[in-house]
Amino acid sequence: MSIVVKPINPTKKELKKYIQVGTDLYKGNDYFVPPLIFDEIDSLRPEKNPAFEFCRAQSFIAYRDDKPVGRITAIINDIVNQRTGEKTMRFGWVDFIDDAEVVDALFKTAEDWGRKQGMTSIVGPMGFSDMDHEGMLVDGFNELGTMATIYNHPYYPTHMERMGYTKDADWIEFRITIPDAIPDKHQRIADIVRKKYNLRTVKFTSRKKLKDTYGQALFDLINDAYDKLYGYSPLTQRQIDYYIGLYLGILRLEDVSVIVDADDKLVGVGISMPSFSRALQKSGGKLFPFGWWHLLKALRGKVDTVDLMLIAISKEYLGKGVNALLFADLIPAYVKNGYKWAESNIELEDNSNVQLQWQYFDYRQHRRRRAFKKAL
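-> structure tokens emitted (376 positions)
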């Protein structure tokens, strides 16, 4: 039975079918968390996603006997290639059945597309920027996924290695037990840092005020703090405006910590959200007719897990204990909201500065994911 791989047009109708291909492969899997369908569609539409100003992309679906059996998106991020001096393409949104013929046909099509664009290597899974999902799960398949990460079947990395792909980078994730109170040593560090550098915590009761006051500064800080991290694609002004509108309006403000200096300049931020994992499973990634209710219930109600979406500290204050200030602010809110555990989400395995912040907590490393690379 021959495999046919077809390019798709980035229309809402075609992309909805494309997203469904990935979701259908995980029916009955209790660990898979479906994405928000409308968000995935918008990410792949040039007229919606500002990343297309500096990225090229083509999505493909693999068919056997007219039945979808796999998908992949080939991406070229010209900004990252200019920064690195490489000619590397990315692959993302990849899913496939456990069949070598299907996998080979899918990746050959994506690789051929990249070669025609002048690329000499391929890496992934990665998206257009760090705001997209990245890293193939290689360990932790029996752990519930999160809204911000990829879940995939255990046979995926086996096929990658069979095709000659090798490790380019690994990320690890931690599940942290929320303490009943701020650890004493943590509190002492926070108090010292606050006085020594004249820092303070700012809390908001209005999402609009948060956006208006620190929305731009927040993403400027992300660009600065993450600039040297693996594969980072600096956010453009259009992307910043896009993400301010997309994400800052849905935060539970108690789960956000903003640290500023004596001049009210942003020096650190911690953004977390109640876990949407079970809500997304119940909704199937759809807002209508009733999916919105499950998501709203998770946002306003009681869930036992909080997702740590991002922590960013100004380079000027790295290694000076500002992280302790963030958690001294957030832990009481976590306890109040009934969270028992926190999901760290992805951290580069060699980022010891980030991992040191968990030393005062009860935690376990429970997932590992990988970026695979191959010469074309």
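The first strand starts at residue 3 and ends at 7.
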